[in-house]
Amino acid sequence: MGRKWNNIKEKKAAKDANTSRIYAKFGREIYVVAKQGEPDPELNQALRFVLEKAKTYNVPRAIIDRAIEKAKGGGEETYDKLRYEGFGPNGSMVIVDALTNNVNRTASEVRAAFGKNGGNMGVSGSVAYMFDSTAVIGVEGKSADEVLELLMEADLDARDILEEEDTVIVYAEPDQFHAVQEAFKNAGVTEFKVAELTMLPQTEVTLSEDSLAQFEKMIDALEDLEDVQQVYHNVDLG
Questions:
Q1: I need a surface site. Which of 41, 101, 109, 197 has the fewest CB within 10 A?
Q2: Half-sphere exposure in the Cβ direction for 42 (13 Å, CA)
Q3: Alpha carbon distance 213, 77 (integer Å)
Q4: d(Cα 24, Cα 108) in Å, to the nearest integer?
Q5: pTM, entire model
Q6: Which of helix, strand or coil describes residue 58?
Q7: Residue 98 near residue 106 (C-beta atoms within 8 A)
Q8: What domains does the chain contain, in order, with CATH numbers?
Q9: pLDDT (tens digit, 9 = 90+) per residue, 164-179?
Q10: Which helix (H) or strand (E) holds 23?
């Protein structure tokens, strides 16, 4: 896969550490998936996905509970799930996932974030075909060989298993997310460094110093938008 997952996640976590933005985004997503299905994660797979990811970002329990209670109470807010695709400098590709209660506002803001930072929006399908939906699960305290063995014992396949510093990262098919987690839990794992569904690029591009600075400014502008939940891209951040 080639993704330096820890570096990417740590950079994002450091950026979000001084703000409540990441919590607000999780609160919105939890509310939406809990309202669309059962507010019980045991009965709502989409909610289980979000809650597992929230744990790895240390989202406070109070925020999770508040969002679920709001959904249980029949909150009147409704959101549309949207995906935008676009391009940055020198062949860089970007996918933007959003939850919005105002489609026109969000489209305008996303388009502006691209345009003001050297990028441009593309049509649906212009970028997504270069990415693969992937389950990414990371644990500490085990070697890649140990992880491979426990997955084999559980009769599970992985796209890739990589050791990145003190973490072993498993890249698997999206529908294997919970099965891989259960295999780890059965082996005594109680905490996950990474546990989420993401979009990984099939290939990465390397940008010059100037282009990279411009690209990161564009990504920051997109991530700063209230309606944007997640931004994926194909740039090697080093």
A1: 101
A2: 0
A3: 37
A4: 21
A5: 0.88
A6: coil
A7: yes
A8: 5-72 (1.10.10.200), 80-129+203-233 (3.30.70.980), 131-201 (3.30.70.980)
A9: 878 899 999 999 999 9
A10: helix 21-36
